[in-house]
Amino acid sequence: xxxxxxxxxxxxxxxxxxxxxxxxxxxxxxxxxxxxxxxxxxxxxxxxxxxxxxxxxxxxxxxxxxxxxxxxxxxxxxxxxxxxxxxxxxxxxxxxxxxxxxxxxxxxxxxxxxxxxxxxxxxxxxxxxxxxxxxxxxxxxxxxxxxxxxxxxxxxxxxxxxxxxxxxxxxxxxxxxxxxxxxxxxxxxxxxxxxxxxxxxxxxxxxxxxxxxxxxxxxxxxxxxxxxxxxxxxxxxxxxxxxxxxxxxxxxxxxxxxxxxxxxxxxxxxxxxxxxxxxxxxxxxxxxxxxxxxxxxxxxxxxxxxxxxxxxxxxxxxxxxxxxxxxxxxxxxxxxxxxxxxxxxxxxxxxxxxxxxxxxxxxxxxxxxxxxxxxxxxxxxxxxxxxxxxxxxxxxxxxxxxxxx
Length: 405
Hints:
The strands form 3 sheets. This protein has a 7-stranded mixed beta sheet, sandwiched between helices. It folds into 2 domains: 5-43 and 289-404, Aspartate Aminotransferase, domain 1; 46-283, Type I PLP-dependent aspartate aminotransferase-like (Major domain) (Aspartate Aminotransferase, domain 2, 3-Layer(aba) Sandwich), CATH 3.40.640.10. The chain is of the alpha/beta class. It has helices at 5-8, 14-27, 46-56, 71-85, 100-112, 127-135, 149-161, 184-196, 254-267, 273-283, 288-311, 337-348, 374-404; strands at 33-34, 95-98, 118-122, 139-143, 168-172, 200-204, 230-235, 248-252, 323-327, 350-351, 353-354, 365-369.
């Protein structure tokens, strides 16, 4: 039977191949150290959990909520933007609560995309950035992911050679999966370009609070006039270790927020009210929970970089996010990221995400998620060291045998 049209537009989900192999290995008794999916293992702070438990006992909160988010939650997000970025937002017209930033992106794609519309998107990038628009009938034009001259070169080419002209540009800094961080000067140039060419900017700022340098990553909305063309998406999943709570936001341009709100009003009634109240408590807090999460990931990052290098696999230290973007060890470059990821599960009991899952230009890398504790990360490094040493010996033996023939 022929597949449905939208399903045909989606390639096989490469992460599923790794997940199946991981599940089979565990079923056979293997102790797989899972550094693949970016699924935070840290518990949600107790104050947030306590607020949820308190509010859920009130039967009035068990009814349908509101798709745009309760007023107190939107006001809390406005305060967060003002305190963190110096950006003033109207909670009634410029903020909408989403079921995580992923849902927000997908619904924004439905709201603004006509069949054949061209969207400029980084490659590699988080899959929903591209496939939300592909499922909505759009066409993706791949962009450089590095926030430097190469980005603007690909931006100019995309606008000059795309027919029809692009309607939107996706930004994601700090980047998932590459961990690149953008500067405010970079954003100023992007906003100027977008205004000149009447292009919508959709910025994914999910990792704004997971950074390791002294300078916090900026928001594109800090650029004067950026709100004229921009909507930005944030998430509480990583910032407050609330991934299963599915709580995020879209903020910015009123016209775009209104379009997103209208689409959402047909699709959902918003998150469960007690979750929204608990999220409000989190946003109104003193920030100590955020700092604790950040420091935990920093310690894990430092252990991973140190131990993996000693194991024979140097990994660049990410400046932000809960991921490292690791080039394949040189002798495995021709293998590609998917087969290398499978090999790590089979021979080292370590799971990572193949870079090809984030776009064809990611196939020389894998993404390593800092979602295991420091002890487990050290164990992963020991496993990888044994694998690299034994595999290197096997390859040398093959070379010796070939030379004798």
